[in-house]
Design a protein that fits this description.
Structural class: alpha/beta
Mean pLDDT: 86
Shape: globular
Number of helices: 22
Distance between the termini: 60 Å
Oligomer: single chain
Length: 500
Amino acid sequence: MLSILVVDDEAPVREWIVYCINNLGEKFNVVGTAKSGKEAYDMILEKKPNVVITDIKMPGMDGIELMQLIKKILPYTQFIILTNYAEFSYAKEAITYGAAEYLLKSELRSADLAKILEEILKEQTEVLEGKNSEILSNSYIDLYSLYQNYDDKGYCVSFWQRFGMDENKPYIVIGAYEDISFNQRQIIANIALELSPYYINLAFRHQIIYIILQEETYEKLQRTIEVFTNKYFQIIRQDSAVSEVQNSLRTFMQAIDQAQIALSSTFFKSEKSVLYYNKLTQIEALDYSQIRKGYEKILSLVSMKQHKEIIDDINIWFDNFNRVNANDIGWAREMCIKLVISLEEKLYQLKYDNEFRGTEIRKFDSSRVCKEACIEMIEMMSVGKDGKKSKSISEALEYIHKNYNKDISLIKVANHVYRSPEYFSRLFKDEVGENFSVYLMMYRLNYADKLIKTTNMQISRIANEVGYTTPGYFSRIYKKYLGMTPEEARSKNSDKMSRK
């Protein structure tokens, strides 16, 4: 039987979905409904449903945020996302964060819902039939029951004691991605035979092999970790990740999480290596505010013709992720993928859909791939796209780019292209994607930013160069939209250049 929770802030939608599920027979059971993400979160932790059907857009906690939080605690929970939004970017975002399926409310039929639930039930049945008690068909230990009893530390202790672990000896968990080109189980067994650790066992979840190593003392465990990881890497040449040393079986799930987090940091790595969770915690934390400012700046410049500058900004923005703290890995990965999705959506808004069909979300397995996708899209904008804008707007943009440092206004530019200010304002927003005033301001600030970082020109002179006669006003809007004062930007750039 499949247990299901339905989440939507619209009562008629909830009631219709429940009605459809109840008509599917005894194989499917609705264990509850919720009208908000917060209410659903509490119910999921209590009832632990197999499937959550949730709206993607709700007040407060939305469907994607709900899915992210639940997947950290109950990773086996399947999500089906519902939305009124037809844009492909919502679908990709939902799938990126772990949705099993994405459906439009306006097109949803009971037959579609039934088909998806049948597929999930079939998959679950196959998994359960492949188990032998708490052992999977591939002989790895199954972690399912541990996640289902995540809040019962006593269960975790008794679980691992049944598998021969000692509550009073230190241990670690090593995570490695499954690689079907190797017999990893045999390779691990051969290394273990050579090292003879006090205890070794293997678990498996979502294409990750977890190697549990336990020794009698902390010192011996450290030596075993070093030798084991080196030998494993020499043979397989694939990433592996090591948790912190644990001294109690009650914290076993913490060790699993640490190994998984460290392994996910490979998203930002170009070379294969052995990753240690405790070393990742020592890296300086990311500046979330500054990264968000950079993200917003890139999006605001998309509709401008300064494509080289946008590409420079993208390269600089991705440099933020050269070294990522363990606590920032999930957020940083989401931001990288979010920028790709946002640029794709911008392309559609700018009517590039005939030339660009989007990227495949499953290929976003590294920050390098994300950066390449972003640059590719910007380059597509720069090649032969003028035909997408009317003659009036093309001439207006050319006029702005030549005269941005002068006293120009919407009325003056509208007169230049022989259009009424009212009509020109609407046409500009429709074709460029920004209000005239915002476009002009960001164009000026972007050029000023370049001067600040590449010259020693006084800030007051730079302000005048880009069309601002009052340096104080220039500094205020620069900080508001670019996240720091001109002086801070120059100082930060100087520090970065001195470290190179």
